[in-house]
Specification:
The chain has 307 residues and is of the alpha/beta class. 54% of the residues lie in helices and 11% in strands. The strands form two sheets. Strands 3-2-1-4-5-6 form a six-stranded parallel β-sheet. Strands 7-8-9 form a three-stranded mixed β-sheet. The chain starts with 7 loop residues before the first strand and ends with a helix.
């Protein structure tokens, strides 16, 4: 039985990620508390079994929770940590699911330590371009890899407890990482993908005339759909993510720019041997990554069958 059985876990922020987390925890034997700013969201989530209980006031939820997961925009996470630091249950643990860890972990550790509350940062590598509680689904975190931050000041028991919590879900793995390494990593593996999808969408669909737009719409098929999908994500959310990880994102974007320019140059110079080499290298690397993801999924399925 999990050490979290019978404990009270609060999900703060019941959008896509928070509500999906609540649904994923349905069979985990924890008491699921939840809170969202809008009353209608709180009511909908209780009615649809996203959470077990809610309260009108955020501080009333925080006071009860053994573990609090902040599923909020990055600026709101840091604001909540500072403004409500005195409201968390003494001895409890707080984590989050934010895409940037440096600014969040620094705020959490500084704000909560004096209240005997332990902050450990988390980032599940999961999501879609959708938003809102009604877009939530229990399988969102299935086979996801979870990063959990470790720092010189973090409480080791709390760190292990957060690791254990994520194993309540059908995840692939939990990896410990420093906030600094995390932010450089996701700039390359996640943030740059959104920049590329944005650039592609603007280059293809931002047309000067309705006639050209109609042609482009007709000419775009599944390749464009799949490659541009995440350009439909929230502009405000991605402004906040990029703004809070600016140096790492710029470095990742510049590296990508150099590689893209090499591809363009090979075409412009009719060096199609080089173009084919680059394409073959890309195919090899992606196929290797796909094999890795499939092996992670198979390992998880084997573990589930043995339980």
């Amino acid at each position: 039985m999990s050490k979290w059985a019978g404990k009270r876990v609060a999900v703060i922020g019941l959008g896509l990620l928070g509500a999906s987390l609540g649904l994923a925890l349905k069979k985990s034997q924890v008491c699921r508390l939840g809170w969202a700013r809008r009353e209608e969201t709180r009511r909908w989530c209780v009615e649809h079994d996203v959470v077990d209980q809610t309260c009108d006031k955020l501080e009333d939820v925080l006071a009860q929770a053994d573990l609090t997961i902040l599923c909020l925009p990055i600026p709101v996470i840091t604001q909540t940590l500072i403004e409500y630091a005195h409201c968390f249950k003494s001895g409890s643990i707080v984590t989050d699911i934010g895409s940037d860890k440096g600014v969040i972990v620094a705020a959490g550790e500084a704000a909560l330590k004096k209240y005997n509350v332990h902050f450990i940062g988390s980032h599940p590598m999961a999501g879609t371009e959708k938003n809102g509680c009604q877009a939530a689904f229990a399988e969102l975190y299935d086979n996801a890899e979870i990063f959990v931050t470790t720092t010189p000041d973090c409480n080791q028991d709390a760190l292990r407890s957060v690791e254990d919590f994520w194993h309540l879900l059908k995840i692939a793995s939990v990896r410990l990482i420093t906030p600094e390494v995390h932010d450089s990593l996701v700039a390359h593996t996640s943030h740059i993908s959104h920049l590329l999808a944005l650039a592609l969408t603007l280059a293809v669909l931002d047309c000067d005339s309705s006639e050209e737009e109609a042609l482009r719409y007709s000419g775009c098929a599944t390749g464009f759909r799949d490659t541009s999908r995440i350009a439909s994500s929230s502009p405000l959310m991605w402004r906040e993510i990029i703004e809070n990880n600016q140096p790492a994102v710029v470095a990742a974007a510049q590296k990508c720019g150099h590689i893209y320019q090499e591809i363009v140059d090979s075409i412009a110079q009719s060096d199609f041997d080089r173009f084919e080499e680059l394409f073959a290298r890309g195919k090899f690397l992606r196929d290797k990554w796909m094999d890795y993801k499939q092996s992670q999924k198979s390992c998880r399925e084997k573990q589930d069958s043995e339980r």
